[in-house]
């Protein structure tokens, strides 16, 4: 128990933020697309597959947030031998999680909005549904970049501390 | 192997043979008819009214099939959709064709029976509603319209709320004087509504009515002429009769299920006909001849002319399309390349000046897809699934391309997964460790084999989780190679279109600049990747490239200041654009890590229990569920991001698009494939 430092708390807070905000953003995004998609399916159930893909798209941020949280727990040894992090070390991990938390939250919502617009493409011109997917996927780039920075920062922090 | 060369064909045929010639062309399906300008002596055979009638017949057949499916669904497995439609030779087609009108009659029968069913259902619903309305009144022996006798008035209706005879008397008391007599019978009561029959002397009728109104009395909307029971029974009988009738109709429809195959045939027949009659607007007739023209793939011209000459008395001319014609695009590639054609089509078909991007794109599509999914286990599942569809069910057409694409993507995924040592995440070393007590299975195998096959755990190359920077660098490297091919395609395109200075000045400096800067960039990410000896050479390359861009990018401008300004602007565009483009390939690492790490999480959760038996049970469940979900999510993500890299980064370098798909006049059948012999 002596390893439960303030630094560890900060680090875990970062991981929790990444998972929670990524998940919250995705929930909002997926929910919005789901509502629009349900409208299309009431008119034409055969479009279910196409709108479902659009609905899943803003869901990845939640997954990325989960990934960052998991990697964090792994990196600070929460699931094995917990490292006694100093406050500044904990703060570093906290900072490393922020890109995913913020980037994930915002991009998931906006990706959801883009996908909602995409749903209306599917409704009116189902043959162009591929383009609808691309529009929504454009937004995801920034979640991917955020994820990348979070992961790289975290891994390099761990290497430096070693 | 690329865009198919198109020819323009003009045909003149005698009017007597017009039907046969058009039928023949529809079966062949190689020519796309083109509208001509009407000139004197010839006019379009436009017959939209006939086409509409044919389309109506086709719709009737489709409706009949839907109805049959509703009452007697066709037994079909999930995989039956992969099966190809049965084949029908032209001869068999002609034989069955004679019955088409008769079968169409059957279709109309089915539709009218269905109409009877729905009408009867509506009547039944109406009867039920009416029965519900009189149900509370069933114990009333007089008609609901009963107004009373010579000396009495009757009030029959509803009161809001629940009343008994006593409570009603109490409720009415404040409005009445003591001597006002009335007789009240509660016909039925519910929580929120009471049905009452009230009889009173004519003298106090008015006062009573006012009192009743005051507590909310209302007449029923549709009072019966006879005792309510009479209507109730009448409605019941009618409903039963209608139900029987619709059952009878359904039975008759079910009897017609045996005609399903014939109806499918008829659907195809009228599809052909309605297509043909709509195409007639592009066929023109003179006094004794018809003429039409259209685009045809160059390779098919000779065979078609040969057959036309043999069967009919026609005059055919073939020439190259005019420069400004809107020539349709048809792609022809080897299966491994054709598999990614739908991806390109989703963006846009190649325009007039474009080269076919598919051959270059296919290679990179599989490569990038493999790195992003990067789990050999998932790749293996894709290969097995698509292999079954491909070799056992022999899917055809558009679906075949998609199946092919995932098949090759699967192979690439197995390749990269093996290099990165990810087979359903870390399932293999974990199982070896947790269930068999072998700590480092890769090491054990290496000792077995006598050489280092597995360089890190069971990775043939390295594990991205342990060395993300290395994979990041390789991601950028693959990105640069991918983009260089894009620039190369741009070079070829400009060269072909006789813009040789453009080809040289817009493409070559880019190569110099990027090759020169890349090693320095790599050293920023990780120090010492390239030795100073290398960078001291490459920085001159970069400088040369930059100078060339600044000097030549503004060559369209006339004065020297404009040239320089545009040159600097061009340099800025190149720098910012390429930086973003190359960094975009970092998603290769991010998505690859995502698959691998989540797969590992799944395995970790599965092996939480301590004892072996519960551990095994838990592991099996978590393994199946977790990996199915992870694979599904990552497949979608990988597909989307591979497309993005092609569309946004790669296509932007050279591809314009805007081509129109080649849509020949053909037998567009749904249920049968009509073959010539």
Unreliable runs of chain A: none
Arithmetic mean pLDDT of chain A: 89
Distance between the termini of chain B: 29 Å
Question: How would you characterize the largest beta sheet of chain A?
Answer: none
**End-to-end Cα distance of chain A:** 21 Å
- Unreliable stretches covering 5 or more consecutive residues of chain B: none
- Helical element count of chain A? 5
| SSE order of chain A, one letter for each helix or strand | HHHHH
Report on the architecture of this protein.
- The complex is a heterodimer of chains A (162) and B (677).
- Chain A has helices at 6-43, 48-56, 60-75, 87-124, 129-161.
- With 162 residues, chain A is an all-alpha fold.
- The mean pLDDT of chain A is 89.
- Chain B is of the alpha+beta class and 677 residues long.
- Among the domains of chain B are: 145-219, Alpha-Beta Plaits, CATH 3.30.70; 335-653, no CATH class.
- Chain B is built from 22 helices and 13 strands.
- In chain B, helix 12 packs across helix 14.
- The model of chain B has no long low-confidence stretch (mean pLDDT 88).
- Chain A binds chain B through residues 53, 56-57, 59-60, 63-64, 66-67, 70-71, 79, 130-131, 133-134, 137-138, 140-141, 144-145, 147-148, 151-152, 155, and chain B through 346-347, 468-469, 472, 583-584, 586-587, 589-591, 593-594, 597-598, 601, 604, 633, 636-637, 640-641, 643-644, 647-648.
Please give a quick description of this structure.
The complex is a heterodimer of chains A (about 160) and B (about 675). By secondary structure, chain A is an all-alpha fold. Chain A has five helices and no strands.
What order do the helices and strands come in, and which of them pair?
The complex is a heterodimer of chains A (162) and B (677).
Chain A lengths: L5 H38 L4 H9 L3 H16 L11 H38 L4 H33 L1
Chain B lengths: L1 E2 L2 E9 L3 H11 L3 E3 L8 E2 L3 H24 L15 E3 H8 L2 H35 L17 E9 L4 H8 L9 E8 L3 E9 H13 L13 H28 L4 H20 L4 E2 L3 E9 L3 H11 L3 E5 L11 E2 L2 H4 L2 H7 L10 H16 L2 H17 L4 H24 L6 H10 L4 H9 L18 H29 L3 H26 L6 H21 L7 H25 L2 H20 L5 H39 L22 E3 L2
Parallel strand pairs in B: 5-13
Antiparallel strand pairs in B: 1-12, 2-10, 2-11, 3-10, 4-9, 6-8, 7-8, 9-10
Helix pairs in contact in B: 2-4, 2-8, 4-7, 4-8, 12-14, 12-21, 12-22, 13-14, 17-18, 17-20, 17-21, 18-19, 19-20, 21-22
